[in-house]
């Protein structure tokens, strides 16, 4: 028997591509299979001119740097 979850949130489907809504039932958008895919869904507020990198990639690098201990924009850049 699997251990009970301590979270009050419903457990998502074991299939990461399954469509679920906020109640954990079907009918919602598919769950992302990675953090980069999830961050790629963020709308890009920048103008097209001068954009070199996708916003999801920029956010993923910033997230990784923050998790690694960066505490400022300069730290993220390093």
TrEMBL record:
Superkingdom field: Bacteria
Name this polypeptide is given: H repeat-associated protein N-terminal domain-containing protein
Key words of the record: Membrane, Transmembrane, Transmembrane helix
Record field: compositional bias (Low complexity): 1-10
Cited Pfam families: DDE_Tnp_1_assoc (PF13808)
Domain H repeat-associated protein N-terminal positions: 37-78
Region named Disordered: 1-34
KW Transmembrane helix (keyword) present: yes
Keyword Transcription annotated: no
Lineage start: Bacteria, Bacillati, Actinomycetota, Actinomycetes, Micromonosporales
Transmembrane segments: 55-77
């Amino acid at each position: 028997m699997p251990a009970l979850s301590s979270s009050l949130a419903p457990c998502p489907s074991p299939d990461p591509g399954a469509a679920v809504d906020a109640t954990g039932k079907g009918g919602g958008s598919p769950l992302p299979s990675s953090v980069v895919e999830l961050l790629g869904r963020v709308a890009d507020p920048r103008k097209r001119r001068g954009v070199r990198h996708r916003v999801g990639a920029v956010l993923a690098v910033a997230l990784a740097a923050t998790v690694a201990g960066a505490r400022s924009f300069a730290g993220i850049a390093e």
